[in-house]
Design goal:
single chain; alpha/beta; 9-stranded mixed β-sheet; 6-stranded parallel β-sheet
């Protein structure tokens, strides 16, 4: 199949899922075109080659460079993962080289318009050009707004394509409820040829926006359990913590909806009684507030602040607890990645997280804003070794058995094939 993927390019679950899907589908022999303003976060590499075909900016993404850069390692991991899960481990496995292409939005400069005012139109026009030039069959938009709207505009220009929209969270829970965007959110849902959601909770939220509910396919996110697993030695851990210290981690985009300040508050209460460290990974509007709060609470010396990284598994694999105190969380991809590493996830009981975590079995869930409840749950596992080992083991088992790439990617392929057979 020839497929276009539309996604956000920064740190966040939707962009990560889209790019991992691109790698896996290309490994299966499908031709993938990613269209965005910038190269997606998990595919960033300064050595990407580029060329120009018929006025379209065109970049080959899948050929790994000779040097072992992070990009080269990522592509190699993606290939190995797809081969493993789809039984393509032989030497004659189809290479992804040439199967993933990146197209930047076309540029239009005219004094009357601000660049941002025409962004959706430029994106839609780029989609239309790519669809026409490469005989695209499926346009898969990861996020209803603005990506589905852009795809719909391109299709309405007279193109014979099928549009799949995958809902990831705030496109429905935030943008879809806002008076400034709710009509466009509804339009994106009803005008898509197929809609998927990463959790049952999100699918229900989406249908609440509509007068007449539509069929929404549930395709959960997945995790590469080969890549995300417990560190086999303590070499990396020794760089950041002493043997008797507990390592906590909070990784997010530090938007207010993530309630990152609560992660600092939870950590500070534990640190008062037990020597601990906290990784704050990511960038966003509340990152500096977290640092300021840590200083106010007297724990800033126990915190390591890191920018967004494509190697999040390096830190998850040596951590003991993931703190995820979000106000909204449609699925929580970082929670799944942490569980695959045998990390105990302490998260809020919102959105799709209860579909992933059962308190006391494979993690802990607490009420939004209830810092003391979260602290109590952490202490219960620290003082009960049997409970801690059970939760850690079950977390890894849940990730491996229920959220494999094979199941998720097969789910998307079935949606694609059902549309093309009509």
């Amino acid at each position: 199949m020839r497929i276009v993927l539309l996604c956000h390019t920064g740190l966040g679950g939707s962009g990560i899922v889209a790019t991992e899907l691109a790698l896996a589908l290309s490994e299966l022999g499908h031709e993938i075109h990613i269209i965005a303003e910038h190269i997606p976060f998990r595919l960033k590499e300064e050595t990407v080659s580029s060329s120009n075909r018929g006025g379209l900016e065109y970049r080959e993404l899948a050929g790994a460079p000779a040097t072992k850069s992070w990009w080269g390692k990522l592509v190699e991991l993606g290939r190995k993962s797809a081969r493993y899960y789809f039984g393509k481990q032989t030497d004659n496995s189809k290479s992804t080289e040439g199967n993933i292409h990146f197209h930047e939005f076309q540029i239009f400069n005219y004094p009357l318009f601000e660049d941002s005012s025409l962004l959706t139109l430029r994106a839609a026009n780029t989609i239309a050009d790519v669809v026409s030039k490469y005989s695209i069959e499926i346009v898969h938009a990861h996020y209803a707004l603005p990506h589905s709207t852009r795809a719909i505009l391109a299709r309405d220009a007279g193109l014979n394509i099928k549009i799949v929209t995958t809902l990831h969270g705030t496109d429905i829970s935030v943008a879809g409820r806002d008076p400034a965007l709710r009509h466009m959110a509804r339009h994106a849902l009803v005008k898509s040829d197929a809609v998927t959601a990463v959790s049952g909770a999100l699918a229900s939220q989406a249908n609440e926006l509509l007068d007449n509910p539509i069929k929404i396919f549930q395709v959960p996110n997945w995790v590469d359990s080969n890549r995300f697993q417990r560190a086999t030695s303590d070499t990396e851990r020794k760089k950041y913590a002493h043997k008797d210290e507990i390592i906590f981690i909070h990784a997010s985009n530090f938007r207010p909806i993530k309630r990152s300040l609560d992660a600092v508050r939870i950590f500070a209460k534990i640190q008062q009684e037990l020597p601990s460290r906290l990784f704050l990974i990511g960038d966003g509007v509340e990152k500096m507030q977290c640092i300021e709060l840590a200083q106010e609470l007297g724990v800033n010396g126990r915190i390591l602040s890191l920018a967004s990284t494509t190697a999040i598994e390096t830190f998850l694999s040596i951590s003991d607890y993931l703190l995820l105190p979000s106000e909204e969380e449609s699925f929580g991809l970082v929670a799944l990645e942490a569980m695959s590493c045998g990390v105990i996830v302490v998260a809020t009981q919102v959105g799709g997280l209860p579909e992933l975590i059962t308190t006391g079995e494979n993690g802990f869930l607490f009420e939004v804003g209830n810092v003391d409840q979260a602290v109590s749950q952490i202490k219960s596992s620290l003082t009960n070794q049997d409970l801690k080992e059970k939760v850690t083991t079950n977390a890894r088992t849940t990730a491996v058995q229920k959220f494999s790439p094979q199941n998720a990617i097969q789910g998307y392929l079935e949606v694609y094939k059902s549309l093309l057979s009509k």
